[in-house]
UniProtKB/TrEMBL annotation:
GO terms for cellular component: cytoplasm. The active site is at E186, C220. Pfam families: Aldedh. This is Aldehyde dehydrogenase. InterPro entries: Ald_DH/histidinol_DH, Ald_DH_C, Ald_DH_CS_CYS, Ald_DH_CS_GLU, Ald_DH_N, Aldehyde_DH_dom, Aldehyde_DH_NAD(P). The lineage of its organism: Eukaryota, Metazoa, Chordata, Craniata, Vertebrata. SUPFAM superfamilies: ALDH-like (SSF53720).
Length: 455
């Protein structure tokens, strides 16, 4: 059952007519089962507020609209959540902490900042100097290892913003659940890059190599692997070699623009992945220097170790598929990634699901502040960047200030609900299923004050 839904979602459920038809069916259910609903709710709730008695609640809503007047004032207040915890990662230790911090401050929160313990220098820098700039009553930097962070998470925060791995993300969410604290989780995943047969191979290779080898591959949104035909793999290989040489010279180890792996443990994990497929470009490593050359692996199989986890290093595996449809199936059989990339003129890839999408390039979509950035499913929860960051740290509080006059109008809403009262209300306000929107909109316009938004 659940499995069938997972196949159908995003295909069968997307067309507008389908959604309208389903909503109409729900309306029919409410209409045809009215009596059963009354009996079922009567069982447990009595005549609570008369809502069910008044015809599926819609009448009650229009009824309350009617009682609002221009003397009342409705508005949305953008409130801060309160005390926010921001946990940063090591790969972009300043950027991925300060980005969310800006939004949290803009929204009016107090913030506890927890830099990654793996990025020692930036952690120390922030701990020592941020306090000289920001109000230390409201903003604090906590340098903490795994154990201290676990203890930190036992506190009740009002919002937690975490960037890191899915496994730590699960622990953060479990800790947050104890206090029902809302979370944003910026995680990772294996981001596929599909390359069709009809591309300009040189440009593809440069855009792909830049995205993969930037920061030595330690980027959550980097293209993780390539899907293309055997023919395209043959064409891509010399083009990728050329792009790598153009960017990092004939010995990337000497290039000031090519990074190193963050630590021993990560180095060993990534080096072990080199046994997958066939090394077509690069492959050199130096443990003392934490150096792994920009590497391309050809003929990688879906069962190879490198296809079982997010690589997070300077290795680009190519998995051969027969067609675009096969590539789409391959992507859909796996957890939803943070990003999907395609070099193609076909838009069929919208039949997939991912946190974000970028056509004909890599990484660049995340530079636009007009686009929300975040994952879906295993690649994360929530979104930020630009205005979305402010919204993330903001609680939209619906407020109504009513006028104390015209009390007589309220009589209908108060018990006891005599047959006359109910009859009057149902007759006057029951909204028919068809054309329901019009009277509601009309009532809203004539009686409700304009909703304002306060910052
Ligand atoms: C990729 O570029 C080609 C050629 O400029 C264009 O026709 C196509 O629509 C682009 N594809 C996407 C997904 O943006």
């Amino acid at each position: 059952m659940l499995l069938r839904m997972m196949v159908v979602v995003g295909m069968g459920t997307r067309p507008m007519e389908y959604r309208v038809a389903q909503l109409e069916a729900l309306g029919r259910f409410l209409e045809e089962k009215k009596q059963d609903i009354l009996e079922a709710t009567g069982d447990t709730r009595g005549r609570c507020w008369g809502a069910e008695q008044l015809g599926q609640g819609t009448a009650l809503r229009s009824w309350s609209f009617l009682q609002m007047t221009q003397l009342d004032s409705a508005f949305i207040r953008k409130d801060p959540y309160g005390v926010v915890l921001i946990i940063g990662p090591w790969n972009y230790p300043i950027h991925l902490l300060l980005g969310p911090l800006i939004g949290a401050i803009a929204a009016g929160n107090c913030v506890v900042i927890k830099p990654s313990e793996k990025a020692k220098n930036t952690g120390r820098l922030l701990a020592e100097s941020l306090g000289c700039y920001l109000d230390s009553d409201c903003f604090a930097v906590v340098t903490a290892g795994v154990q201290e962070t676990t203890r930190l998470l036992e506190n009740k925060f009002d919002y937690i913003f975490f960037t890191g791995s899915p496994s730590v993300g699960r622990m953060v969410m479990a800790a947050a659940a104890k206090h029902l604290t809302p979370v944003t989780l910026e995680l990772g995943g294996k981001n596929p890059c599909y390359v069709s047969d009809t591309c300009d191979v040189r440009s593809v290779a440069r855009r792909l190599a830049w995205g993969r080898f930037f920061n030595a591959g330690q980027t959550c949104v980097a293209p993780d692997y390539v899907l293309c035909t055997l023919e395209m793999q043959e064409k891509l290989m010399p083009a990728l070699r050329e792009a790598i040489t153009e960017f990092y010279g004939s010995n990337p180890r000497e290039s000031p623009d090519f990074g190193r792996i963050v630590g021993q443990k990560e180095f060993q994990r990534i080096r072990a992945l080199l046994c997958s497929g066939r090394v077509a470009i690069g492959g050199q490593t130096d443990e003392k220097d934490l150096y792994i050359a920009p590497t391309v692996l050809a003929d990688v199989l879906p069962s190879d170790p490198i296809m079982q986890e997010e690589i997070f290093g300077p290795i680009l595996p190519i998995v051969v598929v027969a067609s675009m449809d096969e590539a789409i199936d391959f992507i859909n059989e796996r957890p939803q990634p943070l990003a999907i990339y395609t070099f193609s003129s076909d838009s069929k890839v919208s039949r997939t699901s991912s946190g974000s999408f970028c056509g004909n390039d890599t990484l660049t979509h995340m530079i636009l502040t007009s686009l929300p950035f975040g994952g879906i499913g295993c690649s994360g929860l929530g979104r930020y960047h630009g205005k979305f960051t402010f919204d993330t740290f903001t609680h939209q509080r619906g407020c109504l200030h009513r006028n104390m006059g015209l009390e007589a109008l309220n009589t209908l809403r108060y018990p006891p609900y005599s047959q006359q009262k109910l009859g009057f209300l149902t007759a006057t306000f029951e909204i028919k299923r068809k054309g329901a929107l019009l009277p509601v909109a009309f009532l809203l316009c004539v009686t409700l004050p304009v909703v304002k938004t306060l910052h």
